[in-house]
Amino acid sequence: MPDPITLRDVYRARRSIASIVLRTPLLHSPVLSQRAGAPIYMKLESAQITGSFKLRGAANKMRNLSDEARARGVITVSSGNHGRAVAYVAGQLGVDAVVCLAGNVPANKVAGIKRYGAQVMIAGSSYDETTAHALALQKTRGLTFVHPFDDPDVIAGQGTTGLEILEDLPDVDTVIVPLSGGGLISGIALALKSASRAIRVIGVSMARAPVMYHCLQAGRIVSMPEEPTLADALVGGLGDVNHYTFDMCRELLDDAALVSEDEIAEAMAFMLDTHHLVVEGGGAVGVAALLSGKVTAGGPAAVVVTGSNVDTGLLAEIAGRYG
Ligand SMILES: *Cc1c(COP(=O)(O)O)cnc(C)c1O
Questions:
Q1: What is the CATH number of the domain that holds 135?
Q2: Which of 48, 306, 25, 15 is CA-nearest to residue 153?
Q3: Count of domains for the chain
Q4: Four-residue CA torsion sign, 184, 192, 254, 46
Q5: Is 202 in the pocket of ligand 1 (CB under 6 A)?
């Protein structure tokens, strides 16, 4: 058993990433509050540098590398946002980074990673295949693998989002978090439940191939084929071995919900129309769960809006159809 991650690790993370990440705003949404029948606040990681919360975990992991490991460089695999974050932090810290991507990653996300100067390698046709390539390359070149979710430094880094929510909304009753590999929700749940076990933490995934959701239902790690979804940032399995996030999700989550493609599109259009905010599909699932009534809040609730990296043509099309 690995050492458990603690609140202390989250505070350490906050200190080490403070100069790299943005402390994002928590905005009250009158319209969402009215629809949900409870005060709803949006934690805008869509406004984070690189366009997603992934920056927090990547920054903490890379800040904690030894001088020797830094000199050799890092490697990662990502459906987009994590790769972008690793590339950005690498540029900030002067570390060489290789980002491995599957062939089905949207072109705007590939461009976003190259722009920061990381080396991009397209390998494999699914997340799990690409991971196998990256792990092989990591061994031959002696690079450090920066895992997108199942790593104590990454989880603690994502958990800093929870500290900020608690500071800005000490009365928070429910936190709604987009869920894929579970790094974000594990970190947030750890931080918030260290303050009070009564704070409810709810994960939301897309109905198309929600792997962690099925793992939690089954009580063990399962795999399933990927399906195309508007929530492309949430696509992917837990891999062959999982050390942290499955157990943390099992222990810390109060509930999990699924949203349809229509509900995701409606939430993206809602965020654009109502708040003039650009939100990608994966970033909108929490809002979708509130709008559809699949998740309810009994008191003040924070919904984490996790990312904004969406193709603007696609968003315009969705806004035209659902707005
Ligand atoms: C990665 C990601 C998630 C899910 O985070 P996990 O730690 O894998 O659960 C949610 N939203 C966006 C936009 C992401 O990039």
A1: 3.40.50.1100
A2: 15
A3: 2
A4: negative
A5: no
pTM flag (> 0.85) = yes
Any domain includes 2: no
pLDDT tens, per residue, the chain with 323 residues: 677 899 999 999 999 999 999 999 999 999 999 999 999 999 999 999 999 999 999 999 999 999 999 999 999 988 689 999 999 999 999 999 999 988 877 787 788 788 887 889 998 887 778 888 898 989 999 999 999 999 999 999 999 999 999 999 999 999 999 999 999 999 999 999 999 999 999 999 999 999 999 999 999 999 999 899 999 999 988 988 899 999 999 999 999 999 999 999 999 999 999 999 999 999 999 999 999 999 999 999 999 999 999 999 999 999 999 98
Domain-embedded: residue 131: yes
Burial class (CB in 10 A: 0-12, 13-18, 19+), 114: middle
Residues 140 and 159 in one domain: no
Q: How far is CA 295 from CA 201, 208, 271, 285, in A?
A: 11, 18, 17, 11
DSSP 222: -
Say yes or no: CB of residue 81 within 6 Å of ligand 1.
yes
Out of 130, 145, 160, pick the residue that ends a domain.
145
Q: Which structural domain, as residue segments, surrounds residue 81?
A: 55-145
- On whether residue 1 sits in a domain, the answer given is no
Q: Are residues 132 and 162 in the same domain?
A: no
183 lines ligand 1 (CB under 6 A): yes
Q: What is the largest CA-CA distance in the chain?
A: 56
- Asked if the structure places residue 66 within a domain, the reply is yes
Domain C-terminal end among 145, 175, 191: 145
Question: Ligand 1: which atom is nearest the Cα of residue 307?
Answer: 13
233 Cβ below 6 A of ligand 1: yes
